[in-house]
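Need tokens for this chain, all 360 residues.
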Amino acid sequence: MSRRPRLAPSEIPQRQVIRGWLQEFRSRSTLRALLLSGFDLLLFAALLVAIVRVESPIAQLLLAVAEGFVIGRLFIIGHDACHQALTDSHRLNRWLGRLVFLPSLTPYSLWEVGHNVVHHGYTNLKGFDFVWAPLTPAEYRALPRWRRRLERLYRSGWAPGLYYLIEIWWLRMMFPSQRYMKARRPAFLWDNLLVSAAALLWIGGLVLAAQATGQAAWWLVLVGFVVPFLAWNMLVGFVVYVHHTHPRIRWYADKENWAKSVPFVSTTVHLRLPFGLGAALHQILEHTAHHVDMGIPLYGLPEAQRRLEAALPEHIVVQDFSWRWYFDTAQRCALYDLEQNRWTDFAGRPSEAPLPATAP
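Here are the structure tokens for all 360 residues:
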């Protein structure tokens, strides 16, 4: 197996060269993909049954949060399928992706366009990539008061799920208007109808289960559907936020400067969680390797990330998670001054020297 030596800080090859270092990690296993999908689908179903059957409301709420976490795991598998990184069959990836996306109510084709084409194609390029794109100080000042308050809430650190629920899922995936999705494809409508039917079946099943077990239907729908869905939104909003928000991460307004920065390496964070939580999230936080090569399956990302960090230590942002770091980042990285190439808080004060990233 070839090893790539560390390069000098000034050296950073083009993407195709870097991807060449990671070719050995692109190997996919259909059996492994089916086992991962089957396990998480069974876990999702088992938790849903447990929510219906347990008698303690506290236990039901805890199980509901756990259900939201499992929805996140299923989504990450679907994310791999949408990148054609899950199995060697494009058709199987499409249908398996649609299946495991159902618990998160994610329309496959709309996610594919917004994520694969826009986000991965133009990561952190202002005006193209819309995912957690920061406002400039001037843009923020031009907002009406209610929208400024909403932006403060989104970026407070406390409401990443609200941002994802409204700005990504509701506006851009669920029957989006032409303002948010100019293209119109039959697959968009069919996938929206598919996830809508899944939601109705899910809710209807809980109402029937409530009648059969003598529980209040509103309560069982709350703990069996609403809380898991909100917990999933909190999880995905948090994950996407920490991927692309950091004092060392830049956003760009000029496409030429953006391209020169090799953005597939320089615009994302490798966040390291304690207690094996990164592995529990199917390695989605090994995010630099994923942006360099979307064809690497989730189980190949840890080794690929280590290879990149050994070769490009000065260019990859690696951060150990702590709540202090997270809320400090939320306070200091609220807006982005594109002229000065730096983050500011909501008052326009520039971020001080960035917190040190942890060396690999």
